[in-house]
Design brief:
Chain A: InterPro entries: PTS_EIIB-like_sf, PTS_EIIB_2, PTS_EIIB_2/3, Sugar_PTS. Chain A: Pfam families: PTS_IIB. Chain A: One of its GO terms (biological process) is phosphoenolpyruvate-dependent sugar phosphotransferase system. The structure holds two protein chains of two kinds. By secondary structure, chain A is of the alpha/beta class. Chain A has one domain: Response regulator (Rossmann fold, 3-Layer(aba) Sandwich). Chain A is about 30% helix and about 25% strand. Chain A contains three helices and six strands. In chain A, the strands form two sheets. Chain A has a four-stranded parallel sheet with strand order 3-2-4-5, with helices on both faces. Chain A has a two-stranded antiparallel sheet with strand order 1-6. Chain B has a domain of about 180 residues. Chain B is mainly α. The longest helix of chain B has about 45 residues. Helices cover about 75% and strands about 0% of the residues of chain B. Chain B is globular and about 75 Å long. The chains are: A alpha/beta, B mainly alpha.
């Protein structure tokens, strides 16, 4: 259990299996939502999560892999690709500079 | 909700392991799909049974499938293991298996390229910091050259012939399934594996290497159509639209568009994972689709990736379009029917109860309970979000 403040998130990574399909879709949605906040949003394969990511968003079915690739990084698993509350919470934390439990 | 964010131990689970292996296989093929489609389009147009037969342009077909595509896969596979240097030796070693075999060497490239890159990586790590200043380039170039040459020879003499035999055996297995009309049974394995995020591993790790071999022989392959058929997913989402839990219904039209036209199949997996019994509907629809493709003799010339109806239309072989559309429609209809039945045509009380999904998930002890139980309340909130946005 860790807490990260929205202000400390500078790079958000969306990970999926290949880094070419669903992660690109979610990343472009988040990029639009976070446009003003100056946060970099990237999409990568779950095996290639970059070391400088502050928070990783991926589907819960891939969360186990994400954790083994990037141990110790805040991972936010979500269930559905459209309007998942876990993702919404990350967006709100970044926009409002609030604390996020991960 | 905090519990669902708590990191569970590690990625040592069986599912994560299989996903990871599959991820490597698919990761070697997927960045090169553009080249595979280019080859597929050239094949579809210019071979003797193509749209506009042209003997001169058809000369592109053979070198592209035999050399370009395996070398690209080898390059990508090597890069995954050891960066740019790994890519170079991976591609070099791949030439060995290509020359050592007479079928397209996708599988051989997927084996030898990461292996060669790994050996170079071991060497690089061993000598790191021990090279005299000024000799780095000499050592770097010749270590890569010697490793690449060594594995190209090994590939030609040993790995190529073995993989050649394996690839032929796998191809014979596929022919046997086709000859005995057993191809639809493949869906029993494919559909459940797909929703566990093994979709790319299956399609690009297994079906693509076998499919290109069939296309090279007969101008089309059914194998590309098994995993990527957008019909079952469409049927499932339609069933959710009409008969799913009320809280889920508003999210489905957007999901249908992304799935069917955009080809991002991942979008429907959570709907199946929420109600695991619906996997039966996916299998039924998948089997019906494959059976239709088989009966009508439909095939595509390359992998329709992503699995969008547009991609399907573009890579379907000449004369297969009727069978293709029929298979997609039949698959969607069958999945819709079975899924609607399993959802009790919207009249099941249990579908509205939060406890139901947690109990029905796969019986692995540690993960699913923590992962799946928040699904229903989460879903409720999320659809409310959508409603608010719409309002």
């Amino acid at each position: 259990m860790a807490t990260i403040n929205g202000k400390d998130i500078h790079k958000l990574v969306v990970a999926c299996d290949a880094g070419m399909g669903s992660s690109v879709m979610l990343a472009s949605t988040l990029r639009k939502q976070l446009g003003k906040s100056g946060v970099t949003v990237e999409h990568t394969p779950v095996n290639d999560i970059p070391a400088d990511a502050d928070v990783v968003v991926c589907h819960s079915g891939l969360a186990a892999r994400a954790r083994s690739v990037a141990p110790g990084k805040p991972i936010v698993p979500f269930q559905v690709f459209l309007g998942d509350p876990a993702v919404t919470r990350v967006v709100k934390a970044i926009q409002q500079g609030a604390d996020l439990d991960v | 909700m905090a519990s669902s964010f708590t990191p569970e131990v590690s990625g040592s689970g069986f599912r994560a392991g299989v996903q990871r292996l599959g991820g490597y296989l698919a990761g070697m093929v997927m960045p090169n799909i553009g080249a595979i489609i280019a080859w597929g389009l050239i094949t579809a147009m210019f071979i003797p049974v193509g749209w506009v037969p042209n003997a001169s342009l058809a000369e592109l077909v053979d070198p592209m499938i035999k050399y370009l595509l395996p070398v690209l896969i080898g390059y990508t596979g090597g890069r995954m293991v050891h960066g740019r240097r790994g890519a170079v030796v991976g591609a070099t070693a791949t030439m060995g298996v290509i020359v050592g075999a007479d079928v397209p060497m996708f599988l051989g490239a997927m084996i030898i390229a990461p292996l060669t890159a790994y050996v170079l990586k071991l060497f690089d790590n061993a000598i790191e910091g021990r090279i005299r200043p000024g000799f780095e380039m000499l050592v770097d170039n010749f270590s890569a050259g010697i490793v690449g040459a060594g594995f190209a020879i090994l590939g030609k003499l040993a790995i190529g012939p073995v993989v050649n035999a394996l690839t032929k055996a796998a191809g014979d297995g596929v022919d046997w399934l086709l000859d005995n009309s057993l191809m639809p049974l493949v869906s029993v394995l494919v559909e459940p594996a797909k929703v566990l995020f093994l979709n790319n591993a299956i399609n690009h790790g297994v079906f693509s290497p076998l499919g290109v071999q069939q296309v090279a022989e007969s101008g089309k392959s059914i194998l590309f159509m098994i995993e990527s058929n957008p019909g079952p997913g469409l049927g499932l989402l339609a069933a959710f639209l009409f008969f799913g839990p009320r809280s889920l219904r508003p999210t489905t039209p957007a999901a249908m568009i992304i799935h069917f036209f955009g080809g991002i199949h991942e979008i429907y997996f959570p709907y199946v994972l929420m109600k695991p019994r619906l996997i039966l509907a996916m299998i039924a629809g998948g089997m019906a689709g494959v059976a239709t493709f088989m009966v009508t003799g439909a095939g595509t010339v390359a992998s329709p990736a992503p699995g969008s109806i547009f991609a399907f239309t573009a890579v379907t072989a000449k004369g297969s379009h009727v069978g293709m559309f029929l298979g997609v429609i039949v698959a969607a209809a069958v999945t819709f029917g079975v899924a609607s039945l399993l959802l009790g045509f919207g009249r099941l009380k249990s579908d509205q109860e939060p406890g139901e999904t947690a109990a029905a998930d796969e019986p692995v002890a540690d993960e699913p309970v923590a992962e799946q139980s928040p699904a229903v309340p989460a879903q409720r909130e999320s659809t409310e979000d959508v409603r608010r946005e719409n309002a």
